[in-house]
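Figure 6 in text form: structure in, sequence out.
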């Protein structure tokens, strides 16, 4: 057997045994961030570079929010990179953060979203065959920021307002209004940033499954003038 044949057979065996990387960066990552990564079977791999840390854990938001129960210990390599691959996650959007030597920190590779009463890392795990929340080649509405002075709180507040496609074309057209409230620990940004409500409405309206409407998304926490701030409402204006 020639050396060339031996090398070819060895390389072929090595390639056959090498695992296929079917993962891709999560759509919720910051620009050019390679981690976290979502695999074809919805397993998720997280990484954090923390060479001086003694212990790093992954904490899903909540006891079991679709990523599994936590906190979960991560493994350190010789360069101080900590990683973990979780079993197949439930499709959808999930909050998470890292616990580094007891300190909660966000993932620098992930966008942050207002959840759990603070800016928190989040990951979008795609649902196979579902695209109702993805951008399509259809007419798009707009999400507008509306500042107003509240007589109830005696302070300035902001609401995000979705207006349907063609809203500005005819000022006389009247639309139904939906007031959409966020979940606990979230704020006025949640329905459009992590919930993609505007894209869902664009697609529903284009498909004739919903009437054109205005949607008002405000922060659900409020305090009367002089009262103590509501817990979890920090930074929500």
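Output sequence:
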């Amino acid at each position: 057997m020639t050396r060339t044949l031996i090398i070819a057979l060895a390389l072929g065996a090595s390639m056959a045994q090498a695992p296929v990387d079917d993962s891709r960066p999560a759509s919720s990552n910051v620009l050019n961030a390679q981690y976290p990564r979502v695999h074809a079977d919805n397993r998720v791999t997280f990484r954090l570079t923390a060479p001086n840390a003694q212990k790093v854990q992954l904490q899903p938001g909540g006891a079991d929010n679709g990523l599994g129960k936590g906190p979960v210990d991560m493994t350190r390599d010789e360069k101080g990179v900590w990683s973990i691959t979780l079993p197949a996650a439930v499709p959808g959007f999930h909050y998470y953060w890292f616990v580094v030597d007891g300190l909660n920190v966000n993932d620098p590779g992930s966008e942050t979203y207002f959840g759990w009463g603070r800016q928190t890392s989040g990951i979008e795990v795609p649902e196979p065959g579902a695209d109702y929340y993805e951008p399509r080649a259809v007419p798009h509405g707009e999400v507008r920021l509306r500042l107003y002075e509240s007589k109830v709180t005696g302070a300035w507040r902001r609401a995000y307002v979705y207006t349907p496609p063609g809203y500005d074309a005819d000022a006389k057209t009247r639309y139904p209004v939906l007031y959409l409230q966020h979940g606990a620990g979230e704020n006025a940004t949640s329905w459009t940033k992590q919930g993609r409500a505007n894209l869902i409405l664009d697609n529903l309206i284009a498909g004739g499954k919903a009437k054109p409407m205005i949607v008002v998304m405000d922060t659900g926490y409020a305090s009367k003038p002089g009262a103590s701030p509501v817990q979890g409402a920090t930074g929500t204006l």
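Caption detail: Residues 38 and 236 are 31 Å apart (CA to CA).
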